[in-house]
Amino acid sequence: MTLPIGSYAVDIRTGKVGTVMGHEGPYLRLRPLGGGREWEAQPDGVREATAAERLRAATAYANARSRGEVP
Q1: Which fold does the domain 8-66 belong to in CATH?
Q2: CA-based Rg of the chain, rounded to a whole angstrom?
Q3: Strands (E), 1-71
Q4: Residue 13 half-sphere exposure, CB side, CA atoms within 13 Å?
């Protein structure tokens, strides 16, 4: 499954939610919500994130930021 750039995806291997940043060779490049270090995932190892998963990831980032854990 090929997701378009800018869409939200879940890396099934890790359970992390990220934004699709690009396609490099056989991999997808994902970046965590709120920014951070990109990672590569197999296209068949990701699926589109649900609204609840996107909200949960965004809330976790906002909470970590309020605690000073991320810039």
Answers
A1: SH3 type barrels. (2.30.30)
A2: 12
A3: 8-11, 17-24, 27-32, 39-41, 46-48
A4: 9
